[in-house]
């Protein structure tokens, strides 16, 4: 599912450039609006990385976080939803089977059913299950329906403190483990939902579960030099990140400290 993040970022960048290209004449002798926004994004990423482990930037279980989610970018401008997100609990299982969740409810199980195959398997690794309450407080979207105000479950990712410390020391961006289980997942490709999308009406609140495998990223990728930027162990303490190209917030899950 990680390809969706760079794809979404590329799409957002293309939309940004198409909306602002007419301003380059006004900025001919200075920094263009596109360059200014890209610079601000890089500064924001750098700030998020350098301050990630400061005590005030790591939230506790039960603490509500306000998050402005980009819903869509129509011709008239971007639309946002204000969400209140509360991580209420987390569990670490020795294996996915110990969680009691049916295998066909996972992302690999979903792919097997949709594509009529048994190619996609569940990793034989520890499994982390996180309970999250999400409420949509308000939205300026004038539309409803697929992709107008849908939210991706991949706004959440799993990290740990040792990983973030290494990334900070080595000036590297941390890579998250994406959810491979989402209790609010869609039912199929044909309904424009897929596995990762979910919808909330303004004022609606739902309890969801997100599941992560602590799998070793070097096995399928063979990228030993990038291993430290991923989390595949509970050592050091697990954190759940709320992501918008880079982590905006971290929540201490109370596991592995």
Gross morphology is: globular
Which value, in Å, is the CA radius of gyration?
19 Å
Largest sheet: 5 strands, antiparallel
Rounded mean pLDDT is 76
**How much of the sequence is in beta strands?**
25-35%
Helical run tally: 5
Task: Note the run of SSEs as H and E.
Answer: HHEEEHEEEHEEEHEE
Helical percentage = 10-25%
Widest beta sheet: strand line-up: 2-3-4-9-7
Structural class: alpha+beta
Low-pLDDT segments: 2-30
In total, the number of strands is 11
Distance between the termini: 28 Å
Task: Supply the key terms.
257 residues; single chain; alpha+beta; 4-stranded mixed β-sheet; 5-stranded antiparallel β-sheet
Description of the molecule:
The structure is a single chain. The protein is α+β, with helices and mostly antiparallel strands. 22% of the residues lie in helices and 28% in strands. The chain contains 5 helices and 11 strands, in the order ααβββαβββαβββαββ. The strands form 3 sheets. Strands 2-3-4-9-7 form a 5-stranded antiparallel β-sheet, with no helix packed on it. Strands 1-11-10-6 form a 4-stranded mixed β-sheet.
